[in-house]
Amino acid sequence: MAQDLWSGIFQAKVPPLPESLSFVGGKTALITGANAGLGRAASLQLAQRQISTLILAVRTRKNGEATKADILADPIVAALSTKPTILVYEVDLGRPSSVASFASSILAEIPTLNILLLNAAMVISTFKQSPEAENEIMFQVNYISNAILSVRLLPLLRSTAESCGQKSHLSIVGSRAQKHNDFIEHPIPDSMPIFAFLNDRKKFKVYKRYADTKTLVSMFVRELAKYVDPSVVTVNAVCPGMVKTTINDKQAAWIRVFIAAVFAVRARPVAVGARTLINAVAAGPEGHGQQMGDYQIWANKFLETEQGKKMQKRLWEETLALAEKEAPGSVQEAKLQA
Ligand SMILES: NC(=O)c1ccc[n+]([C@@H]2O[C@H](COP(=O)([O-])OP(=O)(O)OC[C@H]3O[C@@H](n4cnc5c(N)ncnc54)[C@H](OP(=O)(O)O)[C@@H]3O)[C@@H](O)[C@H]2O)c1
């Protein structure tokens, strides 16, 4: 009882990663949302652990360059005999055209990619559409853009594994908050495409949407993993727990006040939360297709239900159709057809 109360209030400790964990050996990692919060901390930890090339994918170049300078000035990184090469790329995950041109630039300019860490996400308290597409913005940023980037960059992760003789990693940052998703109580009717439902202002539930998008991430990862050999590319999602970042800064004022109080008691320092991301991009095949919660596999029970499995299939089909529409040939190139 006392233990339940304790774990309800406080989070479990995330032990330090083994000192021996290293990304040495000419590896390249790409991180989205690399200029803030968990993405920034994970980028630093990859650099400290001797990644060779770090691609900071950011919305604003200036912020990316500032992060690059901070990483290179870090005492551990500065003391390395070989400093990482840090490249800054711009991408706005809210704009499909930006995602498409970013993916094309990476494919054209980056010869190998060992780690793809799709970390960026957002939370707001209103219905807003992507400036280009009619997609609801959290659905666009947290789910659609991550799925599209996974499809586009999977061939590069595969070819890198072949040329390096070591498996690659694709991790999407999810959240255990997905257990509060709305699909359990209010399934999307079969008569309506999932994308159309989620983009319908009248169906939008503000306090459910973040959890819904993170559920979609888990569904996508589960389905994607079926098409990918884990000894070539390990695919997973990861939840870092509650972490002191600015993710809630764009929420309504009263939510920010409430969350700040909860964060003060419960949230982890960002460097501690970022360990879980580093663990995910170094994980073995046991977590393939799964979401990690801290260092362990964590399951959303809804995904095991018939309703969840059916929705996962529908989501997969709609997602691949969009990927194909946005980049013809990409689905076949990623070998994602049955
Ligand atoms: N913090 C937590 O308690 C917690 C818990 C569970 C899961 N997570 C997950 O952890 C991941 C990182 O979140 P965080 O807490 O580190 O949040 P954060 O501090 O708000 O950082 C989010 C990052 O995503 C970027 N981003 C947001 N919208 C973007 C867009 N349209 N295009 C490109 N980049 C965009 C931000 O860029 P700008 O700086 O340009 O805005 C920022 O770099 C997210 O997937 C989040 O859902 C966080």
From TrEMBL:
Highest rank taxon of the organism: Eukaryota
Keyword check for Secreted: no
Pfam families registered for this protein in UniProt: adh_short
Gene Ontology molecular function: oxidoreductase activity
Keyword annotations from UniProtKB, A to Z: Oxidoreductase
Protein name: NAD(P)-binding protein
Species this protein is from: Roridomyces roridus
